[in-house]
Amino acid sequence: MVIADAIALPASLIAAFYLRLGDAVTLQSYGISAPIIMALAAIPVFYLCGLYRNVVRYMDISMLRSTGIGLAVLAVATYIGCVLFNMPAPPRSTLLIYWFIAFSYVVISRFGARHLLRTPLRQHIVAPRVAIYGAGERTSHAYTPICFFDDDKRLANRHVGGLRVYPLSRLNDIVRKHELQQIILAIPSASPERRRTIVSRLSSLGIPVRTLPTMAEMVEGKVLESAIREIQVEDLLGRKPVPPRRDLFSKCVTGKSVLVTGAGGSIGSELCRQIESQKPAHLVVLDHSEYALYAIEHELRERFPATQLSAYMGSVCDTELVSRVVREHRVDTIYHAAAYKHVPLVENNMAAGIRNNVLGTWSVAMAAAQHNVETCVLISTDKAVRPPNVMGASKRCAELIFQAFALRPNNRTVFSMVRFGNVLGSSGSVVPLFRNQIQRGGPITVTHADVTRYFMLIPEAAQLVIQAGAMARAFRQCACSDAPFGA
Question: Model-level pTM?
Answer without folding.
Answer: 0.57
